Amino acid sequence: MKYRENAAVRFVCFVLLPLLILIYSAINRGHYYSDLICLFGIHLILATSLNLVNGFSGMFSMGHAAFMAVGAYTSALLTISETQKARISGLPEWFQKFTLPFPLALLCAGLVAALLALLIGFPVLRLKSHYLSVATLGLIVIVRAFLDNEDQFTNGARGITGLPSYSTIFSVFLTGLILLYIMYRLIRCSSYGRGLIAMRDDDVAAQTLGVRIVTKKISIFCLSAFAAGIGGALWGHLQTVISGQFFYFTDSFEIVEMSIIGGMYSLSGGIVGALVMTFLPEILAPLETGIMIGGFQLPELYGASNLIMAVFLILLIIFRRQGILGDSEIIVESIFSKSTYTGIFKAETYRKLVDITKAKLTGKKKEKTAK
Amino acid sequence: MQNREPYTQKIIGNRYTKTKASFEKSLCLFLYQLGKKGKSLKTCLNISGLGMQFKGVKAVQNVSMNLEEGKLYALIGTNGAGKTTIINMISGVLKPTAGTICFQETDITGMRPDRIAKMGVTRTYQNLRLFKKMTVLDNVLMGAQMHSTCGAWESVFQTSRFRENEKSMREHARKMLDIMGIAAFEKELAGSLPYGNQRKLEIARILASNPKLLLLDEPAAGMNPQESHELVDIIRGIQKEFGLTILLIEHDMKVVMNLCEYIYCMAAGEVIAEGGPEAIRNNPRVIEAYLGKRASHVTN
Ligand SMILES: Nc1ncnc2c1ncn2[C@@H]1O[C@H](COP(=O)(O)OP(=O)(O)O)[C@@H](O)[C@H]1O
Ligand SMILES: [Mg+2]
After folding, report:
1. Residue A341 pLDDT grade (very low, low, confident, very high; cuts 50, 70, 90)
2. Residue A334 and residue A327: Cα distance in Å, rounded?
3. Residues A30-75: pLDDT tens digits?
4. Could you give the ipTM of this predicted complex?
5. Do the Cβ atoms of B51 and B45 come closer than 8 Å?
6. Could you tell me which of A165, A365, B211, B283 has the fewest CB atoms within 10 Å of its CB?
7. Strand ranges in chain B using DSSP code E only, listed in sequence order
8. B58, B61, B78, B85: which to mutate for ligand 1, most atoms within 8 A of CB?
9. Beta strand pairing call for B72-77 and B262-267
């Protein structure tokens, strides 16, 4: 009986719900809401990948926009049509006709971003705390300058247009799920992740327990950049137009904000942060044009949503610095089995809750049978 | 063998006659030690002319030591004598400014700490460096996984080798927690343990890595007498059971004199005396360093 209930809930969660969303998105392709859901999926990839560096390895990088840009341009150049390519002067002959299918282009986007991370990782990761942050900001400026000035490869400040709109809810969330699975396994279930968290907690002790700091830092930086590159590519294929200005400080800060709001010490925190930062501004948007609340006509409050978001962030930093989730993960599977639970509540609290609800349920049943 | 038995009984009988089981256990240990003494003792760690200078401060000068395998050594000295600095240099946390350190005939001077650790030289810290946000079991797993050859990608694909490896590491880690007597707390966060248990956890963590040399930096500091007594028993036990070489920094002279076979005494960055417990107890320079000049005149 119990197993069947679980199976039913599982069926709804993992089969029915995704199916409904997919059907919805297939019907409403390119609509406002399905684009918003796509954007959420992309933010999710970016925020969780930033958490790998900022939360799990104890460094604080703010350069995600640079890796996004590199990923977006790589995927764009690999997928746009011949006529689009003809506008970009400096591409070699063989490259003009060369296109890759979308999944391969995504992979390349990730790899090129990871390569960039590897190159700058050696000098930059020697720095500590805020020096590292400033250096990663510098990286954004360098990448922007490159994109704007190397006309022959990037079409300069005009950017690249006509990217095929490959980013659908299906492709975005499938990519997101694969990346999340890899990150989760690496961080939470392996010696690698254990060593990483140990390094964050106490690097000296970790070193004398056989953890090689340099390789740990560089590898996690590259992995994070890999996911960011893919996120950037997906973003490009959602907007279909990219140029250097879309990958600058504000965009980087937005991702940092997501990761802080949701909680940078957990992967789920990235998801929650992406959720809040994608949908809250949209919910608040009507305030700016003036709405009716209970018969009152509110005046037009331009900038209100930004203001509220800022206040929200300040309050969060004052009262819950570790973010909404702190360092706990929400694990879907644990909702179904007691023993492996490692979620928001402590295991004991959770068991108590289960016992109480069970007692209530059985109590009600007994009453019914008594009647 | 026959003529040896009464002798062993005499020696062991004095120390342990509480229960028959503990007597038998200690007899086995004693015979094991006897068997080991038959072989020629090898050098585990050799330090010569070691020096460390922090800008103007000469924290350690011209220190030489020779630790033989399977023995328990003590390093004593007043605060600021340079004991911790020596352990920092052996474990690779600090690079010495002079001298060499050889571990089992390999020169490890200035090597990276992780490589030194992988050779079997492990240490604890005077001010505790646990991974406070990780569970007790995860802390010990950090030690257990040191020699694991399982790559990170095997965890992504959940290969059977990875699962077996993880399982055996967990078992091993639990065993170590059991030895230190803190197995009941395995799911708690390391930072939430009481202080004495945190010290034990730090030892369990390095024990899990199958070490050859333990460098224990004041493992009983901050413990009450009963706890520290318990800890000393455990240290004696693990040293015999695993045949480890241990260098122990300790302030309690009773413990040092009873437990250690050989003692190095430091003052102001130099080794001022070394030898067995008796020799150290009666050494005028040691008494001077600990009690002041006048006291040493009195005893003389
Ligand atoms: N990182 C450091 N920088 C400067 N001086 C240090 C450092 N570490 C230790 N010292 C100095 O070296 C001397 C020995 O310190 P330490 O080895 O910690 O002594 P002990 O452990 O014997 O109490 C002390 O005078 C201390 O001030
Ligand atoms: Mg010290």
Report:
1. very low
2. 16
3. 678 888 989 999 999 999 999 999 999 989 999 999 999 999 999 9
4. 0.81
5. no
6. A365
7. 43-54, 57-68, 72-77, 98-103, 106-107, 121-123, 213-217, 245-249, 262-267, 270-275
8. B85
9. parallel
At residue A94, the pLDDT reads 83
Residue at A102: amino acid letter:
F
Lowest-confidence region among A154-168, A242-256, B277-291: B277-291
Nearest of B74, B77, B198 to residue B127 by alpha carbon: B198
B262-267 and B106-107 as β-strands: parallel, antiparallel, unpaired? unpaired
- By percentage, how much of chain B surpasses pLDDT 70? 83
Q: Which of A190, A201, A208 faces B134 most closely, judged by CB atoms?
A: A201
Buried b (16+ CB within 10 A) or exposed e, A268-294: bbbbbbbbbbbeeeeebeebeeeeeee
Task: Nearest by CB to A191, from B113, B131, B150: name it.
Answer: B150
pLDDT of B51: 92
Distance from C-alpha of B288 to C-alpha of B296, rounded to nearest angstrom = 5
pLDDT bracket for residue A366 (50, 70, 90) = low
**Mean of per-residue pLDDT scores for chain A:** 84
Give, as one character, the DSSP assignment of residue A331.
Answer: -
- Average pLDDT of chain B to the nearest whole number: 83
* C-beta separation of A197 from B142 below 8 A: no
> Residue A272 belongs to what H/E stretch?
helix A267-289
For residues B95 and B110, give the distance between their C-alpha atoms in angstroms, rounded to a whole number: 5
Q: Which atom of ligand 1 is nearest to the CA of B126?
A: 21
Q: Write out the two tokens for B210.
A: 């199958």
Are B128 and B194 a contacting pair, CB within 8 Å? no
Q: Are B118 and B147 in contact (CB under 8 A)?
A: yes
Mean pLDDT on A340-353: 49
Domain ranges of chain A: 2-370
What local confidence, expressed as pLDDT, does residue A363 receive? 61
> Which among A317, A247, A259, A275 is positioned nearest to A73, based on CA atoms?
A247
In angstroms, the CA A47 to CA A50 distance is: 5
Q: A161 or A15: which carries more pLDDT confidence?
A: A161
Q: Is the dihedral of CA A234, A272, A255, A134 positive or negative?
A: negative
C-alpha Rg value of chain B to the nearest Å: 21
d(CA B210, ligand 2 centre) in Å: 25
Mean pLDDT throughout A286-290?
77
State if residue B77 touches ligand 1 by the CB under 6 angstroms criterion: yes
Cα distance between residue A284 and residue A210, in whole Å: 50
What is the DSSP code string of B144-191? HGGG----HHHHHHT-HHHHHHHHHHHHHHHHHHHHHT-GGGTTSBGG
Structure tokens at A282: 């949209």
> Given this model, what pLDDT does residue B177 score?
92
